[in-house]
């Protein structure tokens, strides 16, 4: 985490200084409060006014210090979270496809939302509480020892008891918070699956089955949340009760000292006021430690995302040359998802420049896998892939993908306008080009009939239009890219015969 806090270390240092200033001001306020009481009882007007003015100044100073350290800590936390979220999103976009497929997208969403929020709380609140509590405890202890070491030692006898109980209750609290975050990630994943597959769920009457799975997972979150609430309640209640022990000790023995004339009433008031700085950290720091542990665990989950292996970013630029005999060459290619079952064993293929090739095979034979290898989504175990005579592993992925227009089996559209979905093929092309490729893909007529024509906003995953219409928009996007290599993965499977014939004729003329 320090890697993302280092750019803001000046703000952290300043926040620490203002936390220290707030603690010192609070401690001095206690001193002036006792002084004002003693001088007031002695009718020493000048000393009373001096102490009273000191009390006002320290209170004002404490408030100003609180405001500044609050702003510094909050802004630092927000900036750190921004950087972490940006880095995590960038890593996910560049991560190896094989790594992304090992976890549910809902798990990644949970890490980028609730886990990062816990990280923010760790910096903005828990760290502040721990620093303030530690300094306040130390400062109050020194001042109380200076006033009456006997009373202070008597009060300190109760501290180990408070610390023991706080430690015993904070450990399970932190564990249950961690468990709740993990369960919440599972609930997010199930909710996302249910929404994405709502049509299938309704068509096959899966509401009760999927609802039961969600209920079971949601119940686990609720159970952990109840445990968190239980231990938080136990911790808070126990701390409130136990922190009264030193108060009773101080009032009992301190009152006796005042009666015997060995302690002034003002100094007793100072010690009572300082006692809050002595017991509050024990109470608050127990909760903060539990939350801090949860924040650290959450940061580990986030940094697991940041540590994902990413695609290579180096390599030379692909040079497109029509004089090269082969646009694509596969040489002795081996690939397997599972070592026990090979998909390709020594695959060899040569596609000449300008040639149109159909890859035919049964479902699951590896047609889509071949496209994944060509696009660099996956890496072969052995063998070579060459584009225009250049080895793929020596080329940058971005330059290779720039040379390929791809239409996947499942047309993925974004929740934006139809025109924008097509324009993603080449963001530098104008509206006229978008309409032109839509016509080539047999999509113009149905797009023009939409409520807002090309400005019609599509829903998530392109909801609002048919599967065939999605395919035609996806195809138009690929055509707009005008890349030297066009990969069509059953790109017309959802089209009617007439539209498919029109699209095939258009593709032949490209």
Q: What's the multimeric state?
A: single chain
State the low-pLDDT regions, or none. none
Give the helices and strands as they follow along the chain. Answer: HHHHHHHHHHHEEHEEHEHHHHEH
- Spatially, the strands of the biggest sheet line up as 2-1-3-4
Q: What share of residues are in beta strands?
A: 5-15%
Alpha-beta classification: alpha+beta
Quick synopsis:
With 510 residues, the protein is of the alpha+beta class.
How would you describe this structure to a colleague?
With 510 residues, this protein is α+β, with helices and mostly antiparallel strands. Helices cover 67% and strands 7% of the residues. The protein folds into 2 domains: 2-306, ABC transporter type 1, transmembrane domain (ABC transporter transmembrane region fold); 326-508, Rossmann fold. It contains 18 helices and 6 strands. The protein has a 4-stranded antiparallel sheet, with no helix packed on it. A two-stranded parallel sheet has the order 5-6. Helix 7 packs parallel to helix 11 (265-306). It starts with a helix and ends with a helix. The model has no long low-confidence stretch (mean pLDDT 83).
Key phrases:
510 residues, alpha+beta, ABC transporter transmembrane region fold, Rossmann fold, 2 domains, 4-stranded antiparallel sheet, two-stranded parallel ribbon, 18 helices, 6 strands, elongated
SSE inventory with pairings:
Elements: H1 2-5, H2 9-41, H3 45-94, H4 97-100, H5 105-147, H6 149-156, H7 159-196, H8 198-203, H9 207-242, H10 244-259, H11 265-306, E1 326-335, E2 344-352, H12 367-374, E3 382-387, E4 390-391, H13 397-402, E5 404-407, H14 418-423, H15 431-440, H16 444-448, H17 467-481, E6 485-488, H18 497-508
Parallel strand pairs: 5-6
Antiparallel strand pairs: 1-2, 1-3, 3-4
């Amino acid at each position: 985490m320090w890697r993302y806090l280092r750019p803001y270390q000046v703000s952290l240092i300043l926040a620490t200084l203002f936390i220290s200033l707030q603690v010192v001001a609070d401690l001095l306020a206690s001193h002036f409060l006792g002084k004002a009481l003693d001088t007031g009882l002695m009718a020493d007007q000048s000393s009373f006014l001096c102490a009273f003015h000191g009390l006002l100044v320290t209170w004002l100073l404490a408030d100003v210090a609180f405001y500044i350290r609050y702003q510094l800590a909050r802004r630092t936390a927000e900036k750190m979270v921004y950087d972490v979220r940006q880095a995590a999103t960038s890593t996910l976009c560049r991560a190896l496809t094989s790594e992304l497929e090992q976890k549910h997208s809902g798990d990644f969403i949970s890490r980028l939302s609730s886990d990062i929020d816990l990280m923010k709380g760790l910096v903005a609140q828990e760290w502040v509480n721990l620093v303030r509590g530690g300094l306040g405890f130390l400062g109050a202890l020194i001042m109380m020892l200076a006033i009456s070491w006997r009373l202070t030692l008597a009060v300190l006898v109760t501290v180990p008891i408070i610390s023991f109980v706080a430690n015993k209750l904070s450990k399970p609290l932190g564990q249950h918070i961690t468990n709740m975050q993990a369960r919440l990630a599972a609930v997010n994943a199930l909710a996302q699956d249910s929404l994405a597959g709502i049509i299938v769920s309704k068509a096959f009457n899966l509401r009760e089955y999927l609802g039961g799975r969600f209920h079971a997972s949601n119940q686990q979150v609720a159970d952990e949340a109840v445990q968190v609430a239980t231990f938080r309640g136990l911790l808070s209640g126990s701390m409130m009760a136990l922190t009264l022990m030193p108060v009773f000790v101080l009032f009992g023995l301190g009152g006796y000292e005042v009666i015997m004339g060995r302690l002034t009433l003002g100094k007793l008031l100072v010690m009572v006021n300082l006692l809050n700085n002595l017991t509050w950290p024990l109470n608050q720091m127990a909760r903060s430690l539990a939350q801090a542990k949860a924040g650290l665990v959450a940061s580990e989950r986030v940094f697991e995302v940041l540590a994902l292996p990413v695609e290579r970013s180096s390599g030379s630029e692909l040079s497109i040359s029509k004089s090269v005999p082969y646009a694509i060459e596969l040489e002795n290619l081996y690939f397997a998802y599972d070592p026990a079952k090979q998909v390709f064993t020594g695959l060899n293929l040569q596609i000449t420049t300008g040639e149109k090739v159909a890859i035919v095979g049964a479902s699951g034979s590896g047609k889509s896998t071949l496209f994944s290898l060509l696009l660099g989504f996956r890496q072969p175990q052995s063998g070579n892939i060459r584009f225009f005579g250049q080895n793929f592993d020596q080329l940058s992925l971005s330059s290779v993908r720039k040379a390929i227009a791809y239409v996947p089996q499942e047309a993925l559209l974004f929740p934006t306008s139809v025109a924008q979905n097509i324009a993603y093929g080449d963001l530098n092309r104008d509206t006229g080009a978008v309409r032109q490729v839509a016509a080539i893909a047999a999509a113009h007529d149905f797009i023009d009939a939409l409520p807002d024509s090309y400005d019609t906003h599509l829903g998530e995953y392109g909801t609002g239009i048919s599967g065939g219409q999605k395919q035609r928009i996806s195809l138009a996007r690929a055509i707009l890219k005008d890349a030297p290599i066009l990969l069509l993965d059953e790109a017309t499977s959802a089209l009617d015969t007439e539209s498919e014939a029109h699209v095939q004729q258009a593709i032949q003329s490209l």
